[in-house]
Amino acid sequence: MSKAETVRRAAQDLGKRAEGVKRSVEGAAENIGRSGAFRAASEGAATIKEEIEGHSLGGKVSMVRIYRLKKIVQSFPPMSV
Questions:
Q1: What's the CA gap between 81 and 25, in Å, rounded?
Q2: Domain containing 16: what range?
Q3: What's the domain count of the chain?
Q4: 35 secondary structure, DSSP code
Q5: Which of 30, 38, 41, 69 holds its CA 20 to 30 A away from the CA of 11?
Q6: How many Cα atoms are found within 13 Å in the side-chain-facing hemisphere of 74?
Q7: Tens digit of each residue's pLDDT (9 = 90 or more) over 11-37
Q8: What pTM was computed for the model?
């Protein structure tokens, strides 16, 4: 058997093994994605992200505006009906 033939067969064997590993990893990834723990962790991370973004500078600025508006409204005399 020549060196070229040996290298060709080794490359084919390596390709087949890589394909098998790929299928195994894809199957494991699908199982992980379907698991309830992974879904719960993903949803929890999304909730935390939303909370952090909601309490950023934009959220604090709007609270200051609400406080100021409240003071302005309270400064007006009560309306009689």
A1: 73
A2: 3-75
A3: 1
A4: S
A5: 30
A6: 6
A7: 989 988 998 889 899 888 888 777 777
A8: 0.40
